[in-house]
Structure formats: structure tokens, C-alpha cells
């Protein structure tokens, strides 16, 4: 490209980024969500080239990697792969919470941590942005900001409709994010627990959106356990008071059974626990279990949701219980 054309292109790129930052400022996003990375992210989600007018803004479905690729191609800035988390956590996440973006509008039940997760500019926000630089911008902005509370409420309502409701043994309820392993976690709590740990207390449930969606800190503390937020916690923890067992359950849909390494990790993580530890891997179906059979640790248990009344014991000397090396001292 001739030098003068390259210079004009660079000026167009800088002007678009500056305008995008001004839009994010007008939409009342905080300083970390109106920087250059956030501006480039917004431009990618609008599919807006440097020389294109704002009225040509579009709303394609785009994931984080396509966002990075668009920025590199259109704006000549190649973000490193480790920038993915920055874009997700410091821009996209807040854009979703602010109602600017919709997450997985094509499939609301898609898990948040799915590699297929996509984002799209919300229609009324798109209509506003298309008025950038025109006389209609100011009145449209005022109307948009005035209606945003209702808009965010409607978006959140739709998200809630897609969530997985779970009823705990005590009758209380927890809502998990859609998809992924959460339907299996629901089965663990509502079917496994009544059958194999009647009267059990669900102490912890992990969720892809919220690692601590349900945590009974006092219950863990009474058992002599304190878990750091950075710890690799099993998907479900259940205390079975009648036997004084602590069931550590991994819900497996694609990875993560209790293999030998994981069993040792959990044993170390819960060292000093006043209850005996029971290691359980849960699968949705026998077919889902097939590729993991060789990995499952001895002295652990397997539960399959499609056969909820049965257990598979990876050792023959006892029926569902802690082994001598993990009994409370």
C-alpha cells in the first residue's frame, strides 16, 4: 500500500477507536471498559471497518477468537493469545452485564464456558450506535439510557428462564447456568443424594458462571475444612451425617474423572477433615463413561445418571464408604 494511503488508513483507525471510546463513555461504562481494547472489541462486534460510516454498523455473532482476528485484519493490531481473557473479563463481561451485548442469543442454553460461545450487540444499542455523529444521537442516547434499566431486566429475565433449577435436600433452591455439566449436577443432587446419602447436606456446588454459587462455609468449617478460592474444588460436596462421610463428587461430561492423580489432590485438599472421604465420579450415561474407565481411580465410586439406583465400586471390599487412608484421625 502506498505510504500516503497507509497514513490515511491509520488516521481512520485512530478516529474510529476514539469515537468508540466516546460511545462507551456516553453509555456510562467505567474507565477499564472504555479503553483501547474495549473500543477495538466494540468495533469488532459492530463489524465496522475504519473507513465505514457508523450507520453501516452490523451485529454479527462473534466469539473471542473472531473478535481478535477482526481487530488484526481491520485495525492492524494483533493482540496476543493471552489477551483473550482480558477481552472477556474487562470488556465483553461488562458489556453483557450492561445490556450492550447478548451472550449466545442463538442458543441461550449453551454453557458459558463453551468454545462456541458468541456475543452480539443488542438491537436497541445497535440502533443507537448507528446514529453516532448525527443530530439524532443526543435524543436517542437520552431515550436509550432512560430505558436501559428495563432492558437489562428483560435480558436478565430471559437468562433466568434458561437456567437449570436445582432443589436441595432441605427444599431450598439454586439456579445454575445452562448447559455443560449442570444438568448432571442437578441429577446428582436430586437423584443420587436421596438414594445414597439420605439426609445429606449439600455443602458446595460449583458453576461455570459462579464457582461458589452454593457454599456452606460454616458446614465445612465444622468438619475442619477451609477451602481457598483458588483451590480446585470438586463439582459437588455433600456431607452425609448419618455415616459422617464427606462425598466429593466430580460431574463428568467431557473431562475430569477421579483418577489416581485427582484422588490424591482431593485427599491432600481435604487433609484433616473430621469426616471420612468418599470419592465419586458421576456420568450421564454408560456410553459417556466408556472412554474414562481406564482412568478411574481404585478406591473410588462411579454413579451413572441413566441408572440412578446403582453404583459401580472400583474395589470389591466395601459398598460406598471411605477407605482406611482417608478416615478421620
Q: What do you see in this structure?
A:
With 329 residues, the chain is of the alpha+beta class. Helix content is 39%, strand content 15%. The chain is built from 10 helices and 11 strands. A hairpin with a 6-residue loop joins strand 10 and strand 11. The protein is elongated. It starts with a helix and ends in a 16-residue tail after the last strand.
Shape: elongated
CATH third-level topology of the largest domain? Trna Endonuclease, Chain: A, domain 1
The number of distinct helices, counting runs of at least 4 residues, comes to 10
Report, as a whole number of angstroms, the end-to-end distance: 74 Å
The CATH architecture of the largest domain: 3-Layer(aba) Sandwich
The average pLDDT score comes to 88
Helix content: 25-40%
**Helix and strand pattern:** HHHHEEHHEEHEEHEEHEHEE
How many strands appear in the DSSP assignment?
11
- For the biggest β-sheet, the strand order reads 6-5-7-8-9-10-11
Largest sheet: 7 strands, mixed
How big is the Rg?
Answer: 25 Å
Please tell me the total number of domains.
2
Instruction: Using the coordinates above, name the CATH class of the largest domain.
Output: Alpha Beta
CATH H-level superfamily title of the largest domain: BsuBI/PstI restriction endonuclease, C-terminal domain
Which consecutive residue ranges, at least 5 long each, have pLDDT under 50?
A: none
Q: Which structural class best describes the helix and strand composition?
A: alpha+beta
**Beta-sheet strand percentage?**
5-15%
Amino acid at each position: 500500500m502506498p505510504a500516503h494511503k497507509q497514513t490515511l488508513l491509520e488516521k481512520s483507525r485512530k478516529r474510529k477507536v476514539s469515537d468508540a471510546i466516546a460511545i462507551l463513555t456516553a453509555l456510562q461504562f467505567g474507565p477499564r471498559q472504555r479503553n483501547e481494547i474495549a473500543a477495538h472489541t466494540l468495533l469488532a462486534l459492530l463489524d465496522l471497518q475504519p473507513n465505514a460510516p457508523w450507520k453501516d454498523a452490523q451485529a454479527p455473532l462473534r466469539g473471542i477468537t473472531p473478535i481478535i482476528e477482526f481487530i488484526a485484519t481491520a485495525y492492524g493490531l494483533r493482540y496476543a493469545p493471552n489477551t483473550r481473557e482480558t477481552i472477556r473479563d474487562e470488556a465483553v463481561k461488562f458489556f453483557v452485564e450492561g445490556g450492550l451485548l447478548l451472550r449466545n442469543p442463538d442458543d441461550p442454553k449453551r454453557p458459558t464456558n463453551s468454545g462456541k460461545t458468541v456475543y452480539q450487540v443488542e438491537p436497541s444499542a445497535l440502533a443507537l450506535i448507528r446514529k453516532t455523529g448525527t443530530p439524532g444521537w443526543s435524543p436517542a442516547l437520552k431515550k436509550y439510557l432512560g430505558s436501559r434499566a428495563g432492558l437489562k431486566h428483560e435480558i436478565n429475565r430471559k437468562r433466568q428462564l434458561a437456567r437449570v433449577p436445582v432443589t436441595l435436600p432441605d427444599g431450598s433452591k439454586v439456579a445454575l447456568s445452562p448447559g455443560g455439566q449442570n444438568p448432571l449436577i442437578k441429577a446428582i443432587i436430586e437423584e443420587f443424594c436421596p438414594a445414597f446419602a439420605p439426609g445429606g447436606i449439600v455443602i458446595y456446588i460449583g458453576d461455570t458462571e459462579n464457582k461458589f454459587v452454593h457454599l456452606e462455609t460454616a458446614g465445612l468449617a465444622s468438619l475442619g475444612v477451609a477451602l481457598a478460592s483458588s483451590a480446585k474444588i470438586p463439582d459437588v460436596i455433600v456431607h452425609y451425617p448419618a455415616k459422617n462421610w464427606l462425598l466429593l463428587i466430580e460431574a463428568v461430561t467431557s473431562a475430569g474423572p477421579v483418577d489416581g492423580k485427582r484422588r490424591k489432590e482431593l485427599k491432600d485438599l481435604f487433609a484433616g477433615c473430621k469426616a471420612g472421604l468418599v470419592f465419586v465420579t458421576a456420568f450421564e450415561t454408560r456410553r459417556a463413561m466408556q472412554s474414562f474407565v481406564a482412568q478411574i481411580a481404585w478406591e473410588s465410586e462411579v454413579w451413572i445418571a441413566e441408572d440412578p439406583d446403582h453404583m459401580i465400586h472400583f474395589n470389591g471390599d466395601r459398598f460406598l464408604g471411605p477407605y482406611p487412608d482417608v478416615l478421620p484421625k
